[in-house]
Amino acid sequence: MNASAYKSFNVEFTDIDRQYLESNFRLAETIADFIGPHCEVVIHSFESFEKSVVKIVNGHHTGRELGSPITDMGLRMLSAFERTGEVTPKSYFTNSKDGSLLKSTTCVLAGENGKPIGLFCINMNLSHPFPEIIKTLMPDASLPHVGVHENFSSSATDVIEQALEHAIEEVQNDTSINLKSKNKAVTKVLFDNGIFELKEATGLASERLGITRHAIYKYIREFKA
C-alpha cells in the first residue's frame, strides 16, 4: 500500500498543527540524549507522506534524513487510527535496510481539534554488542563522576525539607562564608534552585533557619534586585 492511496486523508495543516509538531522536536532530542547514540527518534508529519520526516535524531541507524517518506508501518497505523481511533503506542521488532534488529515504538500525534497530524517514533538499534549499548547508559568510568542531586518525593514538604538540608550542608562546607552570612547564603541556594516557587518553602525555611519570614522575604527581594 503506498502513500497515494491515502491522498484523500491529507488535510491542509493549520499554523497550530505545525506549532504542535514543532513542540515535540525538543522531546525527540531529549529522548535520544537520554537513551543514547543507539537510539533513533523520528517525527513524521501527515502534511506530506512523500516527505513526512520533519525531525530526526541519529538517523544513520535507518539511513533517513529530513524529507524522507513515511514508512508502510506508519501508513498502517494511520489506517488503523482512521478505523478504530486507536492511539496507544505499541512496541514491535523490525529490521532496518542493512538488517539491523530494531525495537521500535510509534504513537499518533494529534493536532488542532484532535485530528491526527503525525507520528512520534523511537527505534532502538539492538544489533550492536550489548555491552556497548549498556556502556552508553552508564557513567564514563574514565572520568570523575559528578552526580546531580534530585529529590524524588511524593510531597512538596519533603522536597523542601531535603532541599533545605542540602543547602545547609553546602553552605556549612563553604569556609569562605562567615557565620553571620550563612542564613542568607542558604536562602540564596534555595532561591537559585527555585524552591521558593513551592508555597510552604518560606515558612519551612524560616523555621529551620530560626529567622522570621520577613527576613526571608527581604533576602529574596535583594536577590531579585
TrEMBL record:
- Domain of life from the UniProt record: Bacteria
Where the record annotates domain Transcriptional regulator DauR-like HTH, the positions are 164-221
| Domain annotation YheO-like: ranges | 21-129
Signal sequence: where? none
Q: InterPro entries, from UniProt?
A: DauR-like (IPR039446), DauR-like_HTH (IPR039445), YheO (IPR013559)
Q: Which PANTHER family does the annotation name? A: TRANSCRIPTIONAL REGULATOR DAUR (PTHR35568:SF1)
Q: What is this protein called?
A: Transcriptional regulator
Q: What is the lineage of its organism?
A: Bacteria, Pseudomonadati, Pseudomonadota, Gammaproteobacteria, Vibrionales
